Structure prediction request, 285 residues.
Amino acid sequence: MYTTVIDNMCKDTFVNDAFDLYYEMVASGISPNVVTYTALIDGFCVVGKLEEALGLFKKMISENINPNVYTFNGLVDAFCKEGKIEEAKNVLNTMMEKDLKSDVVAYSSLMNGYCLVNEVFKAQSIFKTMAERELSYDVRSYNIMINEFCKMKMVDEAIKLFEEMPLKQIFPDVVTYHTLIDGLCKSGRLSYAMELVDEMDDRGEPPNIITYCPIVDVLCKNHDGVLSSGKSLPSCGLSFSNKAFSSSSKLSLFLNVIEPKELGTKAIESASLLVLALAFTPAEC
Prediction:
């Protein structure tokens, strides 16, 4: 009963209240179990109280309550998000010392941590280690590396991973496509980016306005390019006006160039993001 309530409170980020209930539970002579501790540790991690989370982690071990893979995953992820990679590695090593097989979640979190501190090659090493330890990749692990390669302008490496995914029966999601399309556009590979837009559509992932943000950004730098490429965009529910570049204002450019056609709520939300994207494009756009 106590554990269920504590778990729900932690999920709702009422962690301090959950911790008070934990003390009440112990005072009542009811021993917390691995689920109780994991819920509290994860709750403290979510609200950024890593010292409290680590204190509970040490306490449960001192009470001979063995952490499970979920306990470790929460700590690894939290430390990585704070850029505390060494602490995350220590938790992962403790996990292995206890003969718990680390899973794709822990390794993906560690990869993401290295990426957050721009250690792309260390992240790549973790990615390769997963294969050596016969861990199954998932779309998130690929997305993390593809995103980092694109950020570091290593687009060829990102493309290799993207093309490798189907060979391992892992299929790109919207995040994968958007990340790679953005990277391709920023590296001047517009034609390949447009091929991926078509591929998205073929795979049942219809491109939306967010998909086109980096493409519009590139095309804005070449007004003739926008007009000649306008036929590629109506699948998103957009069309181009011949009066596209009558104004130097980028916001006016958006309003004049793109004419919404039966845009739903999600598309309207996406359109607002596109306006924001255009607002930060170079002045000549």
Q: What stands out?
A: Residues 229-251, 253-273, 276-285 have pLDDT under 50 and may be disordered. Residues 265-279 form the longest helix (15 residues). Residues 161 and 167 are 10 Å apart (CA to CA).
